[in-house]
Input
Amino acid sequence: MLNVFWNSGPYIVTMIFIVGMFWRYKFDRYGWTSRSSQIYESRLLRIGSPLFHIGLLMALGGHVMGLMIPASFTESLGISEHLYHLVAVALGTIAGVMVVFGMTILIYRRRTVLRVFQVTTKMDKLMYLVLGSLVLLGVYNTIGINLLDLPGKYPDGYNYRETVSVWFRSIATFNPKAELMKDAPLTFQLHALVAMALIAIIPITRLVHIFSAPVGYLSRPYLVYRKRTTKKARRGWEPTQVG
Amino acid sequence: MRVMAQIGMVMNLDKCIGCHTCSVTCKQTWTNRQGVEYVWFNNVETRPGVGYPRQYENQEQWQGGWVRKRNGKIKLKSGGRISRLTKIFSNPKLPGLDDYYEPWTYDYDNLISSPTTDTTPVARPKSLITGKDIKISWSANWDDDLGGTYETGHKDPMLKGIEDSVKFEFEKSFMFYLPRICEHCLNPSCVGSCPSGAMYKRSEDGIVLVDGDKCRGWRMCVTGCPYKKVYFNHRSGKAEKCTLCFPRLEVGQPTVCAETCVGRLRYIGLFLYDADRVLEAASTENEQDLYAAQLDILLDPNDPAVFAQARRDGIPEDWLEAAKKSPVYKLAKEYKVALPLHPEYRTMPMVWYIPPLSPVVDALKNTGNDAEDAKNLFAAIDTLRIPAQYLANLMTAGDVSVINKVLKKLAAMRSYMRDFNLGNDFNEDIPNSVGMTGENIYDMYKLLAIAKYVDRYVIPAAHQETADKLEEAMAAGCSVDFTEIPGGPNAERKPVPIALETFHLTKKRASAESFDETLEGGE
Ligand code: HEM
Ligand code: SF4
Ligand code: SF4
Output
């Protein structure tokens, strides 16, 4: 049963994600936004949002390193497993603390600032539930297991690079190896599970804004000129056209 | 030289009575929706006053517009590209709702549904944001008519250096109204600061717009605009701004604010400008030279070389004809009486203002002097430093000499035309003393004082060949395209777009010499 899940779950989630993003782009391009709430409240956001986002981007970077790059590769560069582990845990701890602090401020703000609370949608709540669990599990894995060894089973930390990461790459190469996942600590399994849930709901939340990160701004000219469109304007009730 | 066309506006501030009709009709048209309750694409400020949003002109605080770097290039005042992207998670220079105001409505229902009580039931103010009771303490024009004498007056950033004289000498205080819309700048810093590239300047007419489908809600444009004329729709999470009523302009109608202006003080027409030199002009070193630089890139539509190049650059014939008749070009460049608002922001704003002479006239009248005599007026303009300095802070980056020149032209027109109206001999010295001819003055007078609808608004419709594709034109059509039914009802006759029909009706009414004329026959 679990085997089936770890083998095919990721593909199902990926399909949901792709179809969902396409659907959102096609039918709700106007709704594709970070939906900033800054004009309601700025003081808490000033602290919370950068902490949260920068921490998250660091964590994302860490995941790319940890999941995609095989241990053999870093070792061939002369980085010992021990050194890698040390750096990963250190940076991961910093990122984790930033995200937890930032997210606490953001959720506190969402709940207590009436203006912000009133425009908080059901999707926002679901998103924070999933994202919050994901972050807490991730922080537990990094700090609780790898740094402090709370369960007392992994004195040198749990080496996910030999199980979880290999499983992740096996999915990417269409040669799924579910058995690698089964032996990982429960919280690692849960972290992966919740991550899949998050990916599945991204298309229906404000998290779509992640995929519009405006890197193009760095290279485009300041001024943008565009010709008047002669296309018949879309009426409010019509779906957005692709292209 | 690359010729581009720009639709511009001029407002004659002497005529603004501060009735806010323009703001109200604009709001009814564009921002009567959830998420933009606090938004006024057109607002009318009493100056001196703090403006809307409060103190938006204090760029040390809000960081709008461009600044010139030491190497002579310009960059956004709020920082370079990378530094601005690092501030994306929380924009440190974003005005909050309270810098505008918290919009409200009243609980009218209570007036009807209240049970019988000893006291009259009241309609309590309710916040449109939270729905809760609120204490109204600010609005888009809270200091209306206070002219800087109220406790907030000295907070007007443009009073820097002269606040004492204005505040403490009540007899010498002055005020006027400043209606504001988006400036549809030639060098728009809002466009420059949009990370997604969702904001753009239309190449045909220069209107600056937000593409709502591309906007991702990074809200950097709000900071970028020094006039604070891009707003954030807090419900949809998208930027919105004045559209210069493009659906109306495209069929040759003036904007709603202009159409409904009670003082008839707005002029709309075309500018031709040299797009290749915009950046150079915006990078002019000395702030006080920016006005001249801005004038300099406006091209003379009657110059054959410009005309030929404009044709090569694809500007249609009817647009070139309209450019020749443009009232805004005449006021800004020929008579040089219209000035840009805050040229020092380096955005090359395209809504121009004729500074008001009335503070001077009123002061002169109060001293018992003849306020229409040229000598008196000229002397008053030279001695009444405060209003001139204030106007200079608004329109010429502080250069009083330009303001004085403009005010003297207006004063000259006033006294020259008085002789005309009283049947006296003309005194040609008056126009000569301000570098104009009697004929110039008369033409300017016609444009400023008695111009009819068709003279105030010279708006070429969008390309004829594509006009029937525009949404407003379609709105009048029926779902059945008559031309496709051979011999069907109205065969050979395309439906006339509502917009065009009303345009002709309005035009007729507005240009008629008598009431009867408006009744005769149809179009
Ligand atoms: C990669 C570039 C990213 C950019 C440029 C970005 C930008 C933004 C911006 C501008 C806001 C609106 C803040 C406001 O004014 O209210 C926001 C909100 C948010 N972002 Fe991001 N974001 C990015 C990545 C992410 C990622 C990776 C996540 C999580 C997986 C994330 C989760 C959120 C959440 C949950 C909010 C809502 C905060 C709140 O108001 O409660 N973002 N983001
Ligand atoms: S005035 Fe209008 S065009 Fe100019 S920067 Fe502001 S929003 Fe942009
Ligand atoms: S409608 Fe005209 S006169 Fe009235 S406030 Fe607006 S600009 Fe001034």
